[in-house]
Design a protein that fits this description.
The complex is a heterotrimer of chains A (about 325), B (about 475) and C (about 270). Chain A has helices spanning about 5-35, 40-60, 70-95, 105-125, 135-140, 155-175, 180-190, 190-195, 200-225, 235-250, 255-275, 285-300, and strands at about 130, 145, 150-155, 230. With about 325 residues, chain A is mainly alpha-helical. Chain A has one domain (about 15-245). In chain A, strands 1-4 form a two-stranded antiparallel sheet. The N and C termini of chain A lie far apart (about 55 Å). Chain B has two domains: about 40-310, no CATH class; about 315-445, no CATH class. Helices cover about 70% and strands about 0% of the residues of chain B. Chain B has helices spanning about 15-20, 20-25, 30-40, 40-60, 60-90, 95-110, 120-140, 145-165, 195-215, 220-230, 230-235, 240-265, 275-290, 295-310, 315-330, 340-360, 375-380, 400-420, 420-445, 450-465; strands at about 110, 115, 185, 190. In chain B, the strands form two sheets. In chain B, strands 1-2 form a two-stranded antiparallel ribbon. In chain B, strands 3-4 form a two-stranded antiparallel sheet. In chain B, helix 4 runs antiparallel to helix 9. Chain C folds into two domains: about 1-75 and about 180-200 and about 210-265, 3-Layer(aba) Sandwich (Rossmann fold), CATH 3.40.50; about 85-175, P-loop containing nucleotide triphosphate hydrolases (Rossmann fold, 3-Layer(aba) Sandwich). Chain C has ten helices and ten strands. Chain C has helices spanning about 45-55, 75-85, 100-105, 115-120, 125-140, 160-175, 190-210, 220-225, 245-250, 250-260, and strands spanning about 10-20, 20-30, 35-40, 60-65, 70, 85, 180-185, 210-215, 230-235, 235-240. In chain C, strands 6-7-8-3-9-10 form a six-stranded mixed beta sheet, sandwiched between helices. A four-stranded antiparallel beta sheet of chain C has the order 2-1-4-5, covered by helices on one side. In chain C, a hairpin with a 2-residue loop joins strand 1 and strand 2 (about 20-30). In chain C, helix 5 (about 125-140) crosses helix 6 (about 160-175) and helix 7 runs parallel beside helix 8. Chain C starts with 8 loop residues before the first strand and ends in an 8-residue tail after the last helix. Classes of the chains: A mainly alpha (about 325), B mainly alpha (about 475), C alpha/beta (about 270). Chains in contact: A-B, A-C, B-C. Chains A and B meet through helix 3, helix 4, helix 10 and helix 12 of A and helix 8, helix 13, helix 18 and helix 20 of B.
Chain lengths: ~325, ~475, ~270
């Protein structure tokens, strides 16, 4: 039993999972309120990654940052959150709000258009080259936590910790604040919430802002951990994030967190062991297949996910 | 007390509505519509196919003929996607995988790599049916899934398909299969471009006829009922799940046929042929043309593919682009008749002023040469802000002007939709149009490949918000 | 109704709860062939839920539904519809963007057979079937007098007035060739004249069409005018059954609608 490998895969899985959880949260929140799958969500993450990269460059770059590293990272994350939050609000206002009463397929097609537009806009403005966060220059690899077989680079800890902090903050927001109550009410019954004096449009805007801000933060974290970003990266994270949301129970916040971890671990372990399991017939590229099978299995067997409640049609 | 009039109006008969037909027949437009309704479908098909049939006879360039063939293949794809998306309202995001399946299956049936050559009369139907069956299987999750989830599952399917294509050894990975034999009908090979064009045309005629006949039958009615209200349809004896699977299968089969035509005509197939970009392009064709309308998606496919081709060449691209913008302004600002002229004139003046100021203040902003060489570009050059060196030697964008202008343009267009008063909207349109020209010259024209997709994405969003039924679709009323 | 013939529809011990809300609680109902039975009860009594369970939209937790002596539990809704049960909806569910005639023609799907291949080839059998479907639709629409015939056939359903939409929905249900019609508040939202017409219509449906009809209604004039028998529900339980006169004066029914009070005002 290769403990080192197992532990390493665990660490990878948890790190990846916390990022997926952030993305899943955005999906879940928007779906809970609008019953809409925001297919452009992954691309919001991508924009966040680029904003973070922009801030990094503006503040001197990874080799020679003009502020302390920890402050730099905080600034990157904040900038991405704010920028993506606004991007999400704009998307909602112009691509989804006009379609509130249209059949379900219309906002989905619009979302496709938005996704395509954002991806290619970034390509247009920044070119197709992969941009690098130069994370290894930013934070020395040697810096980290070492304990037995556990050998974790500090950036991964940072990613996990910040993702967790954001999730806890979100959970507190949703359960303890008035806004959170309004969000939950709107997701149960939009019309009734409106009649109870809740400004539904504003609640929706704030939900989009928060969800997109989380995606933007996730984008920066991804850049930090994996080093390079490009205009197309959002697609994959979007798909995995969506899978995580479904597995955890779409519309449920603890579900999104759990789903993210689950998918992250599933992916890490399938990448790590797929060679062994299939005796080299399937490479690591097929880890996507595993995730897909998980998604299909859940959709067929338990579509409400782990934490969701089965949806009952009112006829 | 009123006296009974000798002739009572019949209860339940609305005379005004009942006489609608008579009134319609009195107007010219109405008479044209009546004539159109009365022409048999076969005649309409001939009218639709005639321009295509005549095309190779009047066109000599090989390039144009290739464009024609590609257009016909796109038309087939749009027709196939229309079944699931336009008629039944299912969002099939894995559609291009079926196209790829058809192409690769043909490569497996008739290439040097496979070591065999199946006659096309066997290959085409066999592959169509196989791909349809796979479409059926892919559609199986739809029984339990709401529309949104189905979209993601089909998207995942496409992803998996691409992963398999690129990584499995028997598909030869990213290099694809490149020694595909041409189509062979009863032993006679199709080797000329004209030949492939006519094969594609015949396929188009057959497919559109089959789809038309399917639509005008109880199956088509059931599909439309299913789209309207799935639960009510099921309670009115229609087997909803089976109908959805049929829609998937039929769409997939059509895509498979398109693939079978695509592979031998190109001679080679690569995984890169069947990606998300193609998917969204076909969606754009269906949405623009009119989901649910066979003629509509055909026209949509032709319009978009031709536009994309024109956009490849910088010179023609500029002419097309400015023509479209001009047309849009004229069409949108019809009332009063002089408003479009005022706006366009104002834009020209605005541009000249800005150009002058820039020339005095920072000359480097206007020293670039336009990318395109059409006459319109030369005219525009003296008018638009065009910094030198907008493009690096590798063709990548440099300089800040184009990018800032782009962000500004997006903000301006979004802001325009918020402005209520017509006057202010026209005023705000002036700098916006100027920005459009700047962005075009600085950013879009030097990168035509990306520009096309940006425009397609924007068009999709705009269409869904403003005119979801596209050009030829029927405007729908939704139950609230 | 002949007492020794088996009932057309038999609901036995039906129970269903949604979360904490119990909608049906051990419900027993029988409907004999040719009968018109009304189901009444205050809102939330479980009436529409009953229809939903009978037509296969929701599975019950307990109980049995027998149609023509055979259980229909577990069947898909379209299979139940083909067996001979058709319904209308409390909130109209028409195919709004299809024409009036097409709406009715769709329901003929279940008893027609032309498959995709035959449709594409336009075989004589398929064409004959299409003509029959059209004729059937015209016939069903003619049931409503001049309201839905001729020029109306080609109009989209969304152009119809509210009362006409209700009539169209009934026409569509009858095109499915059912033996049992479930009408969910057919007179809802209608003015007195339209209500009166609907009352006559339901009677005619039985006389001319031979349908057995189960009706949910709130308007007591309609209930009085059409019913052979009335069943009263409250909180998913049957609280009274009998003729209209019997049920209308049953104290439990009055209490369910009006609540208890020390002094009753009449």
């Amino acid at each position: 039993m290769d403990w080192d490998k197992l532990v390493q895969l665990l660490v990878n899985g948890v790190t990846l999972g916390s990022v997926y959880a952030l993305v899943a949260l955005g999906f879940s929140m928007v779906y809970g309120i609008l019953k809409l799958l925001n297919l452009a969500h992954g691309d919001v993450l991508m924009v966040g990654a680029f904003i973070g990269w922009g801030v990094l460059g503006w503040l001197g770059g990874a080799q020679d940052p003009s502020v302390a590293v920890w402050l730099l990272i905080v600034l990157m994350v904040l900038a991405a959150m704010v920028g993506c939050g606004f991007l999400g609000v704009v998307i909602e206002r112009f691509a989804y709000r006009p379609l509130r009463r249209a059949p379900r397929i219309a906002p989905l097609i619009s979302a496709l258009g938005v996704s395509f537009f954002i991806q290619n806009s970034v390509l247009l403005l920044f070119g197709a080259d992969f941009r690098s966060y130069d994370s290894f220059d930013l934070v020395d690899v040697e810096v980290g936590i070492s304990w037995g077989p556990l050998n974790v680079w500090i950036l991964r800890v940072v990613v996990f910790a910040s993702a967790s902090a954001m999730m806890i903050a979100l959970w507190l927001l949703v359960t303890r604040t008035k806004l959170g109550k309004a969000m939950r009410a709107t997701s149960f019954d939009r019309e009734a919430a409106a009649m109870m004096g809740i400004d539904v449009d504003r609640v929706i805007v704030k939900t989009f802002f928060i969800g997109s801000a989380l995606a933007g933060a996730a984008g920066v974290l991804v850049g930090l951990v994996f080093g390079s970003i490009n205009h197309f990266m959002g697609f994959n994270y979007g798909l995995k994030g969506f899978t995580a949301a479904v597995v955890g129970g779409i519309g449920s916040i603890p579900g999104a967190m759990f789903g993210g971890l689950f998918i992250g671990l599933a992916e890490a372990f399938s990448v790590g062991y797929i060679d062994d399991l299939t005796r080299g017939r399937l490479g690591s590229a097929f880890s996507d297949l595993i995730v897909f099978l998980i998604l299909v299995a859940f959709m067929l067997v338990r579509p409400q996910g782990i934490f969701g409640k089965p949806e009952v049609k009112k006829v | 007390m009123s006296e009974q009039t000798p002739e009572q109006p019949r209860i339940g008969r609305d005379e005004w509505v009942a006489s609608a037909d008579e009134r319609r027949a009195k107007s010219i437009v109405g008479q044209a519509q009546n004539a159109l309704d009365r022409t048999p479908a076969a005649l309409k098909l001939v009218a639709l196919a005639l321009p295509f049939a005549v095309f190779p006879l009047v066109v000599e360039s090989e390039y144009l003929l290739q464009v024609g063939i590609d257009t016909l293949i796109y038309v087939l794809l749009a027709l196939g996607l229309n079944v699931a998306v336009g008629w039944v309202g299912l969002l099939d995001l894995g559609f291009v995988a079926f196209f790829g399946l058809g192409a690769y299956l043909y490569a497996a049936a008739a290439s040097e790599y496979a070591g065999r050559q199946w006659d096309a009369t066997l290959a085409i139907p066999a592959i169509a049916v196989t791909v349809a069956a796979i479409g059926f299987l892919v559609g199986l999750p739809s029984r339990r899934l709401v529309g949104d989830y189905l979209a993601i599952v089909t998207l995942f399917f496409l992803q998996i398909w691409l992963v398999v294509l690129i990584n499995a050894s028997f598909t030869r990975g990213p290099n694809g299969i490149s020694d595909i034999y041409p189509l062979e009908f009863f032993g006679r090979r199709v080797t000329s471009q004209q030949g492939y064009f006519y094969v594609a045309l015949v396929a188009f005629i057959v497919v559109i006829s089959v789809l038309y006949l399917m639509n005008r039958s109880r199956t088509g009615r059931a599909w439309r009922a299913l789209r309207e209200d799935e639960l009510a349809a099921e309670l009115m004896t229609m087997p909803v799940n089976r109908l959805k699977l049929m829609a998937f299968a039929v769409g997939a089969g059509v895509a498979g046929v398109a693939g079978v035509l695509f592979a031998p005509q190109q001679g080679a197939v690569f995984p890169a042929n069947f990606d998300i970009v193609l998917l969204i392009t076909i969606y754009a064709m269906v949405v623009l043309g009119g989901p649910g309308s066979l003629v509509g998606v055909t026209v949509g496919a032709v319009l978009i593919n031709v536009s994309l081709e024109v956009l490849r060449d910088p010179d023609d691209a500029s002419s097309l682009f400015y023509a479209v913008v001009f047309l849009a302004v004229v069409l949108l600002l019809r009332r009063p008749w002089w408003s479009s002229l005022a706006v366009l004139g104002g834009t020209v003046v605005f541009g000249l002023v800005v150009h002058e100021i820039a020339e005095q203040a920072r000359p480097s902003l206007v020293q670039g040469t336009p990318f395109g060489e059409a006459r319109i570009d030369e005219v525009v050059d003296s008018w638009v802000l065009l910094p030198a060196d907008i493009v690096s030697p590798d063709g990548l964008p440099t300089g800040w002007l184009g990018r800032v202008a782009y962000i500004g343009l997006v903000a301006a267009i979004l802001g325009l939709t918020l402005v209520r008063s017509r006057l202010w909207r026209s005023v705000a349109l002036v700098p916006t149009l100027y920005l459009v020209a700047c962005v075009w010259e600085n950013l879009l024209l030097p990168q035509p490949a990306v520009a096309r997709f940006v425009l397609i994405g924007a068009m999709l969003v705009a269409l869904m918000a403003v005119r979801p039924q596209g050009l030829f679709g029927a405007q729908r009323v939704e139950a609230v | 109704m002949s007492p020794d013939r088996a009932p057309l529809l038999e609901v036995q011990g039906l129970s269903l709860a949604f979360g904490g809300l119990r909608c049906l609680d051990g419900l027993d109902i029988t409907v004999g062939e040719g009968e018109i039975v009304s189901v009444i009860g205050p809102n939330g009594a479980g009436k529409t839920t009953l229809f939903n369970v009978i037509t296969g939209v929701y599975p019950p937790e307990e109980g049995e539904v027998l149609f023509e002596g055979q259980s229909v539990l577990g069947l898909d809704p379209h299979q139940i519809a083909r067996r001979g049960i058709a319904r209308t909806f409390q909130t109209l569910r028409l195919f709004l963007n299809m024409t009036v005639k097409e709406n009715v023609m769709t329901a003929a799907y279940g008893h027609t057979r032309a498959g995709v291949v035959r449709s594409v080839l336009r075989t004589p059998g398929m064409r004959r079937e299409e003509r029959e479907i059209e004729r059937l639709a015209e016939e069903r629409l003619a049931f409503f007098g001049d309201r839905l015939i001729g020029y109306r056939w080609r109009q989209p359903a969304y152009s119809l007035s509210y009362a006409n939409r209700r009539r169209l929905e009934i026409a569509r249900a009858t095109a499915a060739m059912p033996r049992l019609l479930l009408l969910d508040e057919p007179a809802a939202g209608m003015n007195p004249v339209e209500t009166h017409e609907m009352t006559e219509l339901i009677g005619r449906l039985r006389e001319e069409g031979g349908y057995t009809i189960l009706v949910i209604e709130h308007d007591m004039h309609v209930v009085e005018g059409i019913s052979d028998r009335v069943v009263a529900l409250d909180h998913g339980v049957k609280i009274a059954e009998g003729s209209f006169a019997q049920v209308a004066t049953d104290p439990r029914v009055v209490e369910a609608y009006l609540g208890t009070s020390e002094t009753r005002r009449r």
